[in-house]
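Re: the 296-residue chain
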Amino acid sequence: MKICRYRLRCDDPNGAEPIRLGVVRGTRVHDVSAITDALPPLRWPFPPGDQFIAHLDTLRPQMEALADSVEGQPLDTVLLRNPVANPGKFVCGAGNFEEVLAAGGHPRRLGLLFKMTSAAAGPADGVTLRWPERTTFYEMEIAIVIGKQGTEIPAAKALEHVAGYCIGLDMTMQGSEFPSFGKSFDTYGVMGPWLTTRDEIADPDALDFRLTVNGEDRQVDNTRRLVLGIADLVEHAASVMTLHPGDVIFSGTPPRSVGPVVPEDTMHAWAEGLGAMTVAVTGGPGRRTPLDGMVP
Protein backbone atom coordinates (compact mmCIF):
# COMPACT_ATOMS: atom_id res chain seq x y z
CA MET A 1 0.00 0.00 0.00
CA LYS A 2 1.07 3.55 -0.77
CA ILE A 3 -0.22 6.09 1.77
CA CYS A 4 0.00 9.86 1.44
CA ARG A 5 -1.11 13.06 3.14
CA TYR A 6 -2.26 15.78 0.78
CA ARG A 7 -4.29 18.85 0.02
CA LEU A 8 -6.17 19.53 -3.18
CA ARG A 9 -4.59 22.33 -5.18
CA CYS A 10 -7.90 24.18 -4.93
CA ASP A 11 -7.93 24.03 -1.11
CA ASP A 12 -7.30 27.23 0.80
CA PRO A 13 -3.97 26.51 2.59
CA ASN A 14 -4.94 29.02 5.30
CA GLY A 15 -8.49 27.74 5.65
CA ALA A 16 -10.09 25.15 7.87
CA GLU A 17 -9.81 22.31 5.37
CA PRO A 18 -7.63 19.61 7.02
CA ILE A 19 -4.87 17.72 5.29
CA ARG A 20 -6.37 14.56 3.80
CA LEU A 21 -5.22 10.96 4.07
CA GLY A 22 -5.00 9.05 0.81
CA VAL A 23 -4.24 5.67 -0.71
CA VAL A 24 -2.28 5.98 -3.97
CA ARG A 25 -3.11 3.58 -6.77
CA GLY A 26 -1.38 4.18 -10.06
CA THR A 27 -1.77 7.85 -10.95
CA ARG A 28 -4.70 8.51 -8.62
CA VAL A 29 -5.15 9.11 -4.92
CA HIS A 30 -8.24 7.88 -3.07
CA ASP A 31 -9.41 9.84 -0.03
CA VAL A 32 -9.57 7.59 3.03
CA SER A 33 -9.50 10.37 5.63
CA ALA A 34 -12.64 8.97 7.27
CA ILE A 35 -10.60 6.05 8.54
CA THR A 36 -8.98 8.26 11.16
CA ASP A 37 -12.31 8.26 13.03
CA ALA A 38 -11.43 4.66 14.00
CA LEU A 39 -8.32 5.76 15.90
CA PRO A 40 -8.67 5.56 19.69
CA PRO A 41 -9.41 8.86 21.46
CA LEU A 42 -6.45 10.27 23.35
CA ARG A 43 -6.08 12.18 26.57
CA TRP A 44 -3.01 13.66 28.16
CA PRO A 45 -0.42 12.31 28.77
CA PHE A 46 -0.39 11.19 25.16
CA PRO A 47 1.32 7.92 24.22
CA PRO A 48 4.59 8.27 22.29
CA GLY A 49 4.60 7.84 18.56
CA ASP A 50 2.35 8.58 15.60
CA GLN A 51 -0.96 6.92 16.42
CA PHE A 52 -2.00 6.37 12.81
CA ILE A 53 1.26 4.54 12.08
CA ALA A 54 0.90 2.60 15.34
CA HIS A 55 -2.52 1.28 14.24
CA LEU A 56 -1.75 0.95 10.53
CA ASP A 57 -1.89 -2.86 10.41
CA THR A 58 -5.37 -2.83 11.96
CA LEU A 59 -6.64 -0.03 9.72
CA ARG A 60 -5.31 -1.35 6.40
CA PRO A 61 -8.25 -3.63 5.48
CA GLN A 62 -10.71 -0.80 6.10
CA MET A 63 -8.52 1.60 4.12
CA GLU A 64 -8.46 -0.78 1.15
CA ALA A 65 -12.25 -1.13 1.27
CA LEU A 66 -12.74 2.63 1.51
CA ALA A 67 -10.32 3.27 -1.36
CA ASP A 68 -12.36 0.82 -3.46
CA SER A 69 -15.52 2.82 -2.79
CA VAL A 70 -14.35 6.36 -3.61
CA GLU A 71 -13.36 7.85 -6.92
CA GLY A 72 -9.68 8.64 -7.21
CA GLN A 73 -8.27 12.12 -7.65
CA PRO A 74 -5.47 12.59 -10.24
CA LEU A 75 -2.13 12.94 -8.47
CA ASP A 76 -1.30 16.04 -10.48
CA THR A 77 -4.22 17.85 -8.82
CA VAL A 78 -2.96 17.38 -5.27
CA LEU A 79 -0.17 18.82 -3.11
CA LEU A 80 1.72 16.06 -1.31
CA ARG A 81 2.74 16.67 2.27
CA ASN A 82 5.02 14.72 4.61
CA PRO A 83 3.42 11.25 4.81
CA VAL A 84 4.18 10.92 8.55
CA ALA A 85 2.12 13.48 10.46
CA ASN A 86 3.83 13.15 13.84
CA PRO A 87 7.38 11.80 13.62
CA GLY A 88 8.76 11.40 17.13
CA LYS A 89 12.41 11.66 16.11
CA PHE A 90 14.62 11.82 13.06
CA VAL A 91 17.71 9.62 13.32
CA CYS A 92 20.33 10.04 10.60
CA GLY A 93 22.81 7.35 9.61
CA ALA A 94 26.41 8.60 9.78
CA GLY A 95 29.19 7.46 7.46
CA ASN A 96 27.02 4.67 6.11
CA PHE A 97 28.50 4.26 2.62
CA GLU A 98 31.44 2.24 1.32
CA GLU A 99 33.76 5.18 0.68
CA VAL A 100 33.63 6.16 4.37
CA LEU A 101 34.48 2.59 5.30
CA ALA A 102 37.40 2.64 2.86
CA ALA A 103 38.68 5.80 4.56
CA GLY A 104 38.71 4.09 7.95
CA GLY A 105 35.31 5.17 9.30
CA HIS A 106 32.47 2.89 10.32
CA PRO A 107 28.89 3.86 11.23
CA ARG A 108 28.99 1.78 14.42
CA ARG A 109 31.97 3.88 15.59
CA LEU A 110 30.65 7.19 14.29
CA GLY A 111 27.29 6.81 16.04
CA LEU A 112 24.25 8.65 14.72
CA LEU A 113 23.19 12.17 13.78
CA PHE A 114 19.86 13.79 14.59
CA LYS A 115 17.43 16.25 13.03
CA MET A 116 14.62 18.10 14.80
CA THR A 117 11.19 16.86 13.74
CA SER A 118 10.07 20.45 13.09
CA ALA A 119 12.24 20.13 9.95
CA ALA A 120 9.69 17.69 8.48
CA ALA A 121 8.32 18.66 5.08
CA GLY A 122 6.67 17.10 2.06
CA PRO A 123 7.33 17.60 -1.65
CA ALA A 124 4.78 20.40 -1.95
CA ASP A 125 6.40 22.33 0.89
CA GLY A 126 9.71 22.61 -0.95
CA VAL A 127 12.98 23.50 0.76
CA THR A 128 13.53 27.00 2.07
CA LEU A 129 17.15 28.06 2.55
CA ARG A 130 16.46 30.31 5.52
CA TRP A 131 20.10 31.44 5.48
CA PRO A 132 20.74 31.52 1.71
CA GLU A 133 24.12 33.19 2.26
CA ARG A 134 25.32 29.85 3.68
CA THR A 135 25.84 26.59 1.76
CA THR A 136 23.26 23.83 2.09
CA PHE A 137 23.85 20.36 0.65
CA TYR A 138 21.27 17.88 -0.59
CA GLU A 139 21.57 14.31 0.72
CA MET A 140 19.18 11.83 -0.87
CA GLU A 141 18.48 8.83 1.34
CA ILE A 142 15.95 6.13 2.10
CA ALA A 143 13.70 7.15 5.00
CA ILE A 144 12.78 4.15 7.16
CA VAL A 145 9.51 4.65 9.05
CA ILE A 146 9.19 2.65 12.25
CA GLY A 147 5.86 0.91 12.76
CA LYS A 148 6.23 -0.94 16.06
CA GLN A 149 7.86 0.11 19.32
CA GLY A 150 11.05 -1.64 20.34
CA THR A 151 14.54 -1.33 21.77
CA GLU A 152 17.55 -3.64 21.59
CA ILE A 153 16.03 -5.00 18.37
CA PRO A 154 18.21 -7.65 16.69
CA ALA A 155 18.79 -7.25 12.97
CA ALA A 156 17.05 -10.58 12.32
CA LYS A 157 13.79 -9.08 13.61
CA ALA A 158 14.34 -5.45 12.68
CA LEU A 159 12.12 -5.37 9.59
CA GLU A 160 9.20 -6.54 11.72
CA HIS A 161 9.40 -3.10 13.34
CA VAL A 162 9.34 -1.20 10.02
CA ALA A 163 6.06 0.21 8.69
CA GLY A 164 7.51 1.24 5.34
CA TYR A 165 9.80 3.52 3.38
CA CYS A 166 9.88 6.94 1.72
CA ILE A 167 12.35 8.95 -0.25
CA GLY A 168 14.19 11.26 2.13
CA LEU A 169 16.11 14.48 1.49
CA ASP A 170 18.32 15.12 4.51
CA MET A 171 19.19 18.74 3.76
CA THR A 172 22.23 19.93 5.71
CA MET A 173 23.67 23.43 6.06
CA GLN A 174 27.46 23.34 6.03
CA GLY A 175 29.55 25.10 8.63
CA SER A 176 31.27 24.96 11.99
CA GLU A 177 28.07 24.50 14.01
CA PHE A 178 27.12 21.13 15.47
CA PRO A 179 25.85 18.89 12.61
CA SER A 180 22.36 18.53 14.09
CA PHE A 181 21.99 22.32 14.01
CA GLY A 182 22.66 22.42 10.28
CA LYS A 183 20.16 19.62 9.68
CA SER A 184 17.30 21.12 11.68
CA PHE A 185 16.15 24.18 9.76
CA ASP A 186 12.46 24.12 8.83
CA THR A 187 11.89 22.08 5.62
CA TYR A 188 15.30 20.34 5.90
CA GLY A 189 13.70 16.91 6.40
CA VAL A 190 11.76 16.26 3.20
CA MET A 191 9.91 12.94 2.93
CA GLY A 192 7.73 11.62 0.15
CA PRO A 193 6.11 11.26 -2.15
CA TRP A 194 4.20 8.79 0.05
CA LEU A 195 4.79 5.98 2.53
CA THR A 196 5.29 2.66 0.73
CA THR A 197 4.51 -0.15 3.14
CA ARG A 198 7.20 -2.72 3.88
CA ASP A 199 5.41 -5.59 2.11
CA GLU A 200 5.76 -3.83 -1.27
CA ILE A 201 9.58 -3.73 -1.12
CA ALA A 202 11.10 -7.21 -1.48
CA ASP A 203 14.66 -6.10 -0.71
CA PRO A 204 15.27 -2.58 0.64
CA ASP A 205 19.01 -3.25 0.38
CA ALA A 206 18.93 -3.36 -3.42
CA LEU A 207 17.12 -0.18 -4.46
CA ASP A 208 18.35 2.06 -7.25
CA PHE A 209 17.91 5.78 -6.57
CA ARG A 210 18.58 8.99 -8.46
CA LEU A 211 18.59 12.70 -7.65
CA THR A 212 18.76 15.40 -10.29
CA VAL A 213 19.12 19.14 -9.79
CA ASN A 214 17.75 21.24 -12.65
CA GLY A 215 17.69 18.09 -14.76
CA GLU A 216 21.35 17.19 -14.14
CA ASP A 217 22.23 13.89 -12.46
CA ARG A 218 23.78 14.49 -9.05
CA GLN A 219 23.27 11.23 -7.17
CA VAL A 220 22.86 7.89 -8.94
CA ASP A 221 23.40 4.94 -6.64
CA ASN A 222 21.97 1.82 -4.99
CA THR A 223 21.27 0.93 -1.36
CA ARG A 224 23.40 -2.20 -1.71
CA ARG A 225 26.38 0.11 -1.06
CA LEU A 226 25.16 0.89 2.47
CA VAL A 227 27.62 -0.35 5.10
CA LEU A 228 24.76 -1.02 7.50
CA GLY A 229 21.76 -2.24 5.53
CA ILE A 230 18.24 -1.33 6.54
CA ALA A 231 17.86 -4.05 9.20
CA ASP A 232 21.34 -3.43 10.61
CA LEU A 233 20.65 0.30 10.76
CA VAL A 234 17.44 -0.25 12.75
CA GLU A 235 19.40 -2.53 15.09
CA HIS A 236 22.11 0.16 15.42
CA ALA A 237 19.60 2.85 16.39
CA ALA A 238 17.61 0.57 18.70
CA SER A 239 20.79 -0.41 20.55
CA VAL A 240 20.80 3.00 22.26
CA MET A 241 17.19 4.23 22.16
CA THR A 242 13.59 3.07 22.12
CA LEU A 243 12.02 3.41 18.70
CA HIS A 244 8.34 4.34 18.46
CA PRO A 245 5.81 4.22 15.60
CA GLY A 246 6.41 7.14 13.27
CA ASP A 247 10.08 7.55 14.15
CA VAL A 248 12.18 7.98 11.02
CA ILE A 249 15.69 6.70 10.32
CA PHE A 250 17.50 8.24 7.36
CA SER A 251 19.77 5.65 5.78
CA GLY A 252 22.78 7.85 5.04
CA THR A 253 24.00 9.13 1.70
CA PRO A 254 27.07 8.57 -0.51
CA PRO A 255 29.38 11.51 0.36
CA ARG A 256 31.06 11.42 -3.04
CA SER A 257 27.92 12.82 -4.68
CA VAL A 258 26.45 15.39 -2.28
CA GLY A 259 26.52 19.03 -3.30
CA PRO A 260 24.91 22.43 -2.87
CA VAL A 261 21.59 23.85 -3.96
CA VAL A 262 20.66 27.51 -4.30
CA PRO A 263 17.35 29.38 -4.52
CA GLU A 264 15.39 28.66 -7.72
CA ASP A 265 16.91 25.18 -8.07
CA THR A 266 14.58 22.21 -8.62
CA MET A 267 15.40 18.80 -7.21
CA HIS A 268 13.83 15.62 -8.57
CA ALA A 269 14.25 12.44 -6.55
CA TRP A 270 13.35 8.91 -7.63
CA ALA A 271 13.82 5.61 -5.84
CA GLU A 272 12.97 2.15 -7.11
CA GLY A 273 9.60 1.06 -5.74
CA LEU A 274 9.13 4.28 -3.75
CA GLY A 275 8.09 6.71 -6.46
CA ALA A 276 9.37 10.14 -7.43
CA MET A 277 9.00 13.69 -6.18
CA THR A 278 9.92 17.16 -7.36
CA VAL A 279 11.03 19.64 -4.70
CA ALA A 280 11.55 23.35 -5.32
CA VAL A 281 14.27 25.33 -3.52
CA THR A 282 13.57 28.89 -2.41
CA GLY A 283 15.51 31.47 -0.46
CA GLY A 284 14.73 32.81 2.99
CA PRO A 285 15.49 36.11 4.70
CA GLY A 286 19.07 35.41 5.76
CA ARG A 287 20.44 35.27 9.27
CA ARG A 288 18.64 37.68 11.62
CA THR A 289 20.48 36.95 14.88
CA PRO A 290 23.70 38.84 15.79
CA LEU A 291 27.08 37.17 15.50
CA ASP A 292 28.79 39.55 17.97
CA GLY A 293 31.40 40.54 15.44
CA MET A 294 32.04 36.98 14.20
CA VAL A 295 32.41 36.40 10.47
CA PRO A 296 29.69 34.03 9.20
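The mean pLDDT is 94.
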